[in-house]
Amino acid sequence: MDVRVGILLALATAILWGSREILLRKAFETARPVHALFTTIAATFVISFLAALFWESAVWSRSAFTDLVLWITIGVLHFPVAMTLYYLGIDSVGASRTSVVSNVSAIATPLLGMTLLGEPSTLTVTAGVLVAGAGIFTVSASDLDSSKWIWQTGILYALMSGLVWSVTNVLTRFGLAHLNLPMTALAIASGVPLLPTSLYLTLENRGADMLSDLKRSRKLVSGCLLSGLGQATLFAALYFAPTIYVAPTYNLKSLVTVLLAYAVIPKSERVNMRVFLGAILAISGIILINF
What we know:
Layout: H1 3-27, H2 33-55, H3 68-93, H4 95-101, H5 104-116, H6 123-140, H7 155-178, H8 182-203, H9 207-216, H10 218-240, H11 243-250, H12 253-264, H13 273-290
Helix pairs in contact: 1-10, 1-11, 1-12, 2-3, 2-8, 2-10, 3-4, 3-7, 3-8, 4-7, 4-12, 5-6, 5-7, 5-11, 6-13, 8-10, 11-13
């Protein structure tokens, strides 16, 4: 396996997801996060299933389904839990702050990888963890409406999503070490939560509302498609490279998000100097970890 391929795929994830945040931030002005969640899961399943059918079906075997419990666990944690929290964070405190604060996964994932998978530890990784942590704290404690340092409960959505994703990243890397079929694994992980999410929308009689949101907002549809594509490139990246490289690289999405927010939606997404400072510190820490 070529680590460089994994890093390039993780970088593609960063670009896809950094752009996604901006689209969903605008979409959530009228659309509901739960509708974005369902559409994201559906898009991820379709993309991964077609990719698996095209590239991996020739080597399908019973071994592809022996770790169903693991992939179901990853799917439940990653989609209904972490992604719901993340989308609620975007809706609550904005795309820039949510994207930067969720970089806590870049801190937790290497620590989990070193502890559970025996992945390497270096001085630069330790320094990167400290610098990224300082950036996340800066953004978490900043108030966009004043010069005060104040904690907002909406930040908890971003923090919790990042922590859960750090667990799923490590579990995914572990699972792909045994199953060399990343798209098949992603299809299983996304297909299982698709069923209860569909049931929820049906029981709550919200299917019509979701269709209305999708018809009304191209940004919602586009953002969810980018999310699904990014999920596929992330799983492929975790197949090629250790989490200690993949997690820091794909978390560069926060740099893409902050820059796009400042340039494209300055009125909806007020990016002040503290957010910039926090993003720079977080990105610097991520680069140190990756280096």
